[in-house]
Amino acid sequence: MEDGVEQDRISSVDWTEWYSDPSTWPTSRHVFLAEAAIRLGRAMIDPWEDHLLSHAGDHNLPLPRGLDWSAPNRRVFDDGSGSVTEELSIDEGMSRPVGWTDEEEVRLFETDTHNSIRHDARLAARAIAGAIAKLAARGSIRTYARPIGGGRLEDIDPSDWEMDDPVGRLASCRMTPGTPSAAAGTHHIFLETEGLTKKLTAYAREKPLALNSGRALPADRPVGGMTPQDRLIVQCEQALRAYLSTRPSDWRKDTLRHIVAKTINRPFSDSVFDQARERVKKDFPHIANGGRPRGS
Predict the structure, then answer these.
(1) Overall number of domains in the chain
(2) Each residue of 152-199: pLDDT tens digit?
(3) What superkingdom does the record give (predicted)?
(4) What domain range includes position 259?
């Protein structure tokens, strides 16, 4: 969950200016910061859409009729008899009040989708901003500044990227050279062209990120360049690890598949699930035969 400070920092700038319409980007022989951010997002984050960052500043919408999903009680019970029961699942929308209408159900779905995209956008924004700032601060990539009204490019000193929170700079794509903490930037930011994609991809392979069910989880396999099936396997694996790490109980194969399907909300084959399950068996060996861990 994001804390209030992080929300305020992300909300204090306009993410739609540069991340809604690439045709508005200033042109140069170098790469505009917003374009570099999207390139990195494609290589580092899954699932990814090029418009994702434009939603980082969206307002969180209230759920209809006072439903609260901030701390859902999601528990699954399997007594070994083959009967599975589930309490108050966020995916089922918890319990509906008496007189709940189809129109409210549609609005509930739309609201939850909006809030989920907003949350994923914020996670992605913080990860991308931190990555670019780190690469620039250590001199791995060269960055340039050009006056907003036009003019000559000048090198940005790597020390200007040593900042506590680079999220605002990623959103505005502006800065004031020599005064990195200035509230309003006087220059647009560009990155070197030569070798940039290779450097961003190399970083992404070291720090891939999987967005699952409102959480960001380190992925132990590269995201960029993967086939659709490989991406599904990684998503299933991450969902399994997240679930089993907090609920190391007696989960059978069919129960786990049910949980993963709800978590990633995407169709997948038995083969995809089996491959993901094989990857987590060494860390959660009790799932191999569906038995309860010893000593439990």
Answers:
(1) 2
(2) 999 999 999 998 889 999 999 999 988 877 767 899 999 999 999 999
(3) Bacteria
(4) 227-296
